[in-house]
Protein 1
Amino acid sequence: MARQAGLTAGPQASPATDLPQPSVRPPRTAGAGPRREQVLTTKVGLQMPTGMAYDEWERAGRQLAGVLDSSCWWLGDWLRFGKDHYTDRYQRGIRAVGLSYQTLRNYAWVARRFDITRRRSGLSFQHHAELASMPVPEQDLWLDRAEQRQWTTKQLRSALRAARQGDRPQPAADPNRLLQLPGSRLQWWHKAAEQAGVDFEQWVTAALDSAAASALEELSAVPAGRGPAGAAPPEGPADLPVAIGA
């Protein structure tokens, strides 16, 4: 692992069977630090040279992140294998290595949803986890998009959220919803109704009917199919009242 990542394992590192082997270096004398441009990995931390160039430091970070991401796949595949081959003993193996069973189950679920031939090395384990619940064709579609557009996990999540919202049917407009109007306009209409000597609701209904008749009259020149000009409003099932909000 360390050779591929460009990191060198220190004296406390313990290699795992059948995994890329770290290059174990002999113990250093007391007070001696790591050589220039060399990062030593141990079970309890990293030893980095004080004179390390920024580019090397950044590269080491990318490599460490890659190892962490790969370990999610490794652990997921490890648990899958144990569950498939050691049904009566694999939980004992989990206890023996001291890892969280729930965390391993999450890794194994994602690993099972993506055959190793479908995993994208250019995308993180978390990219795949975001898509794990989808059918395979949709997984591949979104993996392609994320890879081609170089999305971060957050960008992929946002794109998925936007797509889901776009697929939702928009709620139909409520014909009986309250009409929000400025208070000054309502006062103006109340005053007009008082001057006409009619009830406010009757005045509003008459004003709207008049406006509708005028609009339909303007359409009288349109070819057939529009109905007679100035036609009276159709009668509803019970002439539902229109609510005007204050």
Protein 2
Amino acid sequence: MTHALLLLAAGLVGGVINSVASGGSFFTYPAMILSGLNPIQAATTTLAALTPGNLAAVPEYWPEVRAQREKYPRLLALVSVGSVVGIVLLLTTGADSFDTIVPWLILASVGLFAISPAVRRWAEQSAPSLTDGFAGWGILFVLSIYMTYFGSGVGNMFLAMLFIRGFGDFLSANAAKNIIMTLGTVFAAVAYTLAGHIDWVRAIPVLIGSAIGARYGARVARSLPVEWIRAFIIVFGLCVAMWQFLD
């Protein structure tokens, strides 16, 4: 019961955070570890459990999705291929190797999360190849691979790149981010379930919490200063990274 309440609370916070910006897995991943899962199980179960949360946020942004619908076919095709590559990489990574790189992945995720607004501003002014050319597609492809390999913090980098790629404003970019992350995490949930890496008993409380949090968190996104939430996510993510290094 204690583990179930911990996972439900982590899912609720993670769903709210993901619908506003990204970084929800900084909360759900350590909760999975504390509930007794190994790092690979914690990462894959977190990916599966947060899928409904991404999907639940989409209806709130449907006007933005319809306004940008011509941009989605190529974007979704690219994300699909990258997601499959990330799944294959994780399934061929040994548990010991994954344990070793997890703290570094979390630390890198926090760093990418922190600098993504600066990356967006720089790219808009100085890197037209990111805005209109193949470099931007390449970065989105790499992010798609990372999304299904580990995924922590990837949403905000997606958010920055989608803004750069012409989705125009925060709400439109956030709508696209929720859709492509739903696509990638659905692929991951199916593949990792078939591979036996997902603990659905622990996933269900997070799944319920994230769906509720995302549904109402999307409304929060329209009124709450994003900077406050970003600062909270960065501090918490650094604490998680430090805990993993010391573990």
Protein 3
Amino acid sequence: MSTTSPLLWSTEGRPEQMGDGDEPTLRGIELSRSFGDGETRVTALDHVTLDLYGGQISLLMGPSGSGKSTLLAVLSGLLRPDSGRVIALGTDLWALPEREQEAFRLRHCGFIFQGYNLFPALTARQQLEMVLRWGQGASGREARRKSEEMLTLLGMARKSHLRPVEMSGGEKQRVAIGRALMKNPDFCFADEPTSALDWAHGEQVVELLRTAAHERGATILVVAHDARIIPYADRVFHLEDGRLKEEDVEDQGTKIKERV
């Protein structure tokens, strides 16, 4: 299935696709984060270090409560670690003033949250248009054209007029995913992007993320329980009890086939 679009996936002004042997676009160095105090204190991240590269989809897996969403939030600049550093495009993210952190996220990052975070008063098309109109200064005509194209890719073309209250959970998720990808972000952080979708639409979403990585050179980090995503990932990490290890993608794929 090809989801490539010359309008949506322009590489102009973007870094070349990167891979093994190149400098990582995102580095987490000795990251630690805990919650609570005393006997209720829980360690979510225990000196986690990892490098992520442009042009790759990295999949982060692990049991519920293992710290996956915490690591995603720390790496994306949404949650400050207790200790450690995050280096994004050569910038020490947590050393920046808060306003500069916000500017960095606005310019470089796309987010796909489990809670959708859609604006109640806006239609599906308007949710996407505002990213280009107010975030990048695009004309109304250009924003509408690209928004309609993205909604078509997501199977939402006939529902572009719907507001969130009129959508199913899966439809809201697809709109949220489209919004995250509209600005061609250098980084895309996706927290359970297929959890509200049947696999036909889930596979379509993963293909979009793969296009953003492999054809645009974006750095994609996906947090998920859905093992069906593993064959689409370039790297697979497993987080448990605050400790991170990288899995062999081929071995993971073999395990899936054996279970099936």
